Design the sequence.
């Protein structure tokens, strides 16, 4: 699918940025568009690493922000990943959206975030913001959960599950997008999220499997 094919469905400011970097959507991105990404549908995207999942989230987030629907929150499992995404988003979208990073003191309500459009945070920090009754929560239009398979993690899973359960209750009209490379029960999770399921196995570099023994690799 050519990027130009969705030009009329996304804000011109967003298209102007993207057309400088890409001309064609990757398979998972095309499937997401066809499943209602740009119409505000909830999506669970299960595709390999480097297959273009982040851009799927960006399309939804920036369309909502520029269109005046509300803020977007990007939830990352680790501080390092959150910092990386914050740098990427700020570099790419600094002219059209104010991006903030929130992952510090979990006992702080971070009221300054009310002035930002795209907020990158961790599940633990976002859980704290909810418990502090942060007033701008009602202005969230898009919720993105990276590495959503960590719902099954013994340490981070319970916090993330409770967080999503609360958000689904208080943000009735928000768009939820889950991203992951590995989900064992994708259909079940998609149903829980009330989301369309996007599955694709395309990857930019072909994956070869083999067995290493005594300095040699036998591929199969």
Sequence:
């Amino acid at each position: 699918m050519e990027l130009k094919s969705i030009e009329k469905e996304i804000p011109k400011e967003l298209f102007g940025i993207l057309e400088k970097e890409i001309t064609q959507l990757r398979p998972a991105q095309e499937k997401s568009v066809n499943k209602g990404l740009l119409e505000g549908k909830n999506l669970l995207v299960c595709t390999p690493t480097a297959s273009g999942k982040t851009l799927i989230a960006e399309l939804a987030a920036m369309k909502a922000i520029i269109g005046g629907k509300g803020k977007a929150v990007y939830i990352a499992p680790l501080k390092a990943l959150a910092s990386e995404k914050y740098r990427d988003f700020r570099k790419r979208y600094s002219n059209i959206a104010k991006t903030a990073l929130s992952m510090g003191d979990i006992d702080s309500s971070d009221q300054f975030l009310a002035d930002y459009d795209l907020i990158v945070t961790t599940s633990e920090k976002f859980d704290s913001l909810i418990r502090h009754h942060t007033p701008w929560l009602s202005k969230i239009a898009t919720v993105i959960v990276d590495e959503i398979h960590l719902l099954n993690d013994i340490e981070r899973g319970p916090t993330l599950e409770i967080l999503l359960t609360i958000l689904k209750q208080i943000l009735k009209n928000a768009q939820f997008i889950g991203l992951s490379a590995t989900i064992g029960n994708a259909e079940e999770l998609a149903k829980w999220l009330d989301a369309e399921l996007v599955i694709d196995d395309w990857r930019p570099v072909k994956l070869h499997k083999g067995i290493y023994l005594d300095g040699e690799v036998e591929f199969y």
